[in-house]
Design brief:
Radius of gyration: 24 Å
Distance between the termini: 28 Å
Low-confidence stretches: 1-36, 42-63, 88-97
Strand order of the largest sheet: 7-8-9-13-12-11-10
Mean pLDDT: 80
Helix content: 40-55%
Strand content: 15-25%
Shape: elongated
Oligomer: single chain
């Protein structure tokens, strides 16, 4: 699901907290109901703070990052337990210390977090302008024009997001998404996908940025609570990179995998910058308080797994992707990616593929003489990963080692048609040399639709299934795996016949 604005939400990601956003491209904004503060460009005579372009040093432990006593000494007698519970930081991080990620997210000019934070002016407009200057200094870029930022209450923002969703995600588009995802067992056929997506965004949203108009809207209280300041910094990074580097286009309907890859760059950029800003300018107590979930997550928890992952991926995977570049050459290396965009979600999920310049194998979409074609586009490693992680929308049925299995992806396409019998979807996936995607897709289908009976394959089929209101076939050769799912075997084999 790709809509046309940036929306920001609060989730836990990686080594602590992260404020995140979902990027799209071309929504027409609704008229602002309240006056908008203005972020003025920094004075041209005052160049931004230099950010080292060499690779930052990587701490080996929390002790290296915070000193011999660690965070407990910095926080005093109560330590982290008072703030985070008995499990402290180990529970928050899942027992893992990601030195590479922390090296990227730590402020570039400080070896420890600020204890007191950087004070902001009492006036809200001046405070926002100050955050803008701080963001520009950290990012090593300059604003070229004024940015109008509008702060709304949670209720006002939810209403705006609902309006945007209704305008930018039309019923026709959601119907196609629902038909495809239903055929693949990723959502219930009776789900109202558009309404579910709207509820998810209304719950999680904390702001949006429109690259077409430069409009920037965020949730915020008058005194700018810590999470408000973080969201403002995140959204201002979108505006800054848009002005200085240009945000990539996200309207290639025939290459949706590339769109998702670009989202990973843009949102990873803003998430890393936001974390660095917080580490530089929020007090240590405010930083740690952000690790405690701040928003209702009921809609997120109840949403189909694929929708959850589509929302979170640009910020979780995107942040790690951008960090991999940042740790090699600072923000200069990140800037260079806007001239050499990632082209696949495989490059985002496994940054070494981006570094190696590994492009997708061209897998043309299947063409069917009969039927109404609903969509023909690329189908990426992230799509495959989400399919394997929750067959039949059931994470408990996920294939063991799903990420390793998805790494066999080398290119892919999706084609969907609507016939009198229903929706038929064909996935064609090129695999890495020595890959095992044929067996992986066989296991996925058995896990997604356990009540479906196997049937005798014909022709070039590796396997075939029928029953429970759907049918499928799997055909494999050394380089290409083709899975077709439809309402019955006649529809599936009509695709095979071409």
């Amino acid at each position: 699901v790709v809509i046309g604005v940036v929306v920001a939400a609060l989730v836990l990601a990686g080594a602590g907290w992260a404020a995140v956003a979902l990027l799209g491209g071309d929504q027409e904004p609704v008229a602002a109901p309240t006056p908008a503060p203005t972020i003025e460009p920094p004075a041209p005579t005052a160049p931004p703070t230099e950010v080292p372009s060499e690779a930052p040093s990587t701490p080996d432990s929390l002790e290296d990052l915070f000193g011999e006593g660690g965070l407990d000494d910095l926080l005093g007698e109560g330590g982290l337990d008072d703030l985070l519970g008995e499990g402290g930081l180990d529970d928050l991080l899942g027992g893992q210390f990601d030195a590479e990620l922390l090296a990227c997210l730590a402020p570039p000019d400080a070896s420890s977090p600020s204890l007191d934070g950087t004070p902001l002016p009492d006036d809200q407009e001046e405070a926002i302008r100050t955050i803008g200057e701080q963001v520009a200094a950290l990012r090593g870029l300059s604003f070229t024009e004024e940015v109008d930022l509008e702060l709304l209450s949670d209720a006002e923002l939810a209403e705006r997001v609902t309006e945007v969703t209704e305008e930018d995600y039309p019923v026709e588009a959601s119907d196609v998404d629902q038909a495809i995802l239903s055929a693949l067992g990723q959502v219930d056929p009776d789900l109202d996908l558009r309404a579910t997506f709207g509820e998810l965004l209304s719950e999680q949203v904390a702001g949006f940025y429109d690259p077409e108009t430069g409009e920037l809207v965020a949730s915020g209280s008058e005194d700018l609570a810590p999470q408000d300041r973080v969201i403002v910094a995140h959204e201002l990074d979108h505006a800054l990179t848009d002005q200085a580097l240009g945000l990539p286009a996200l309207d290639e309907e025939d290459d949706l995998d590339a769109v998702l890859a670009r989202q990973g760059l843009v949102e990873g950029d803003a998430s890393v910058l936001m974390q660095q800003w917080a580490a530089s300018h929020l007090s240590l107590t405010d930083q740690l308080s952000m690790a405690v979930p701040q928003a209702d997550t009921q809609a997120l928890e109840q949403a189909p797994y694929v929708l959850q992952q589509q929302l979170l991926y640009p910020y979780t995977a995107g942040m790690s992707f951008v960090c991999a570049q940042y740790n090699q050459g600072g923000w200069d290396a990140v800037d260079a990616m806007y001239d050499d965009l990632p082209t696949t979600t495989a490059q985002v999920l496994w940054p070494e593929r981006y570094a190696a310049g590994e492009e997708a194998v061209d897998v043309p979409a299947v063409r069917l003489p009969g039927g109404d074609e609903l969509r023909a586009t690329t189908w990426g490693a992230a799509d495959l990963l989400w399919l394997l992680q929750a067959p039949g929308d059931d994470p408990s049925a996920g294939l063991a080692g799903a990420e390793e299995l998805a790494a066999d992806w080398a290119g892919g396409s999706l084609t969907a048609w609507e016939t009198d019998a229903g929706t038929t979807v064909t996935l064609q996936v090129a695999q890495q040399a020595g890959g095992a995607l044929c067996g992986t897709m066989d296991r996925w289908y058995e896990a997604a639709f356990p009540s479906t009976s196997t049937t005798d394959p014909t022709g070039g089929e590796q396997a075939a299934w029928d029953g429970d209101g759907r049918a499928a076939s799997l055909a494999c050769d050394d380089d290409l795996v083709t899975m077709t799912v439809g309402p019955d075997l006649a529809s599936v084999r009509a695709v095979e016949a071409g």
